[in-house]
Amino acid sequence: MPLTQTDLNHILKNTEPLWQRAANKRFFITGGTGFIGKWLLESFAYANRRLNLNCQMLVLSRWPEKFVRQYHHFANFDEIKFLKAEVENFEFPDGKFDYIIHAATEASATLNTEKPLEMTDTIIEGTKRTLNFARQCGAKRFLFLSSGAVYGKQPDNLPLMPENHNGAPDPLDILSAYGQAKRTAELFCGIYYKNYGIETTIARCFALVGPYLNLNIHYAIGNFIRDALKGGPIIVNGDGTPLRSYLYAADLAIWLWTMLFKAEPSTAYNVGSDIPISIADLAHKIAAIVSDKCKVQIAKKPGLITERQRYVPCIDKARTELGLDCWTILEDSIKRTIQFYRGKKQDNFYE
Hints:
By secondary structure, this protein is α/β, with parallel strands linked by helices. It has helices at residues 5-13, 16-19, 35-50, 64-70, 109-114, 116-137, 177-196, 220-229, 249-262, 279-290, 316-322, 330-343, and strands spanning 26-30, 56-61, 80-84, 99-102, 141-147, 199-205, 208-209, 234-236, 243-244, 247-248, 267-271, 277-278, 296-298, 310-311. The strands form 4 sheets. The protein has a 7-stranded parallel sheet with strand order 3-2-1-4-5-6-11, sandwiched between helices. The radius of gyration is 20 Å and the shape is globular. The relative contact order is 0.14.
């Protein structure tokens, strides 16, 4: 099921002046078949056709045939081609590419827990390989999708996490493999800008929501939507007190295209919403949107909320330097995600 005209128009409206610099250019993207990647591919094709840009995009994917079988409408985008390969060792395609987006490596909690070495190698070696390809193909602009996990645990006295926070994940905790590897990959981006002039920009993504979000991995908001659409109850595994914030995927696409085209090189930006909500309140909000009969079950009773876990970014830098914002309120973000999954055929529901 394709994205809605409303969302695609929203993305184009807020990025249209930027696309002129992309006319007749070639794009290369890793991770293009994931949640974020699908939004980038569809919005790219939409802008390309509406603005007559004559752009081309090559998408690196492990299983492009499977992807196109599952998402048939991507086969209609003649400007998008696929390269079947692994990100750590792909053979460099021929020709010049102007823009590169490195979005490979999903934030898989299972892989991080059970195979931290594989997680680390995929992120670090994949980033080095893609940066080396940027050198070879003459690309000047390179967007790396990092994560708020690079900061480690958010201090209790820090309501919003700024880009200049000096915290870090515990290097002796193997569960920090994802965050540590993203930190190292960011370092490579800085080195390749200094040594080779590749204009790297880093997007530190926080929690997101929207169509194409996988409802069956470790994202709480996806699990809650899944439970609600099945009739409930929505299961909250903890006490519901942790704080999160959610950026809608159409807004996310605007942020990422803007960063690719105009952000300062060798600079990191937080990508997310700065409006916090507790996990318990999120579950109740989703239940109310789906059905007044949907119940919420919280596994643990909350104690004194003196040290509550939070994962909420400060986005003043993106607002001030790039004119970005959170245009879509959380309630509308949830409604649009639910509408998308209600419109999907049942055999594609749980991807």
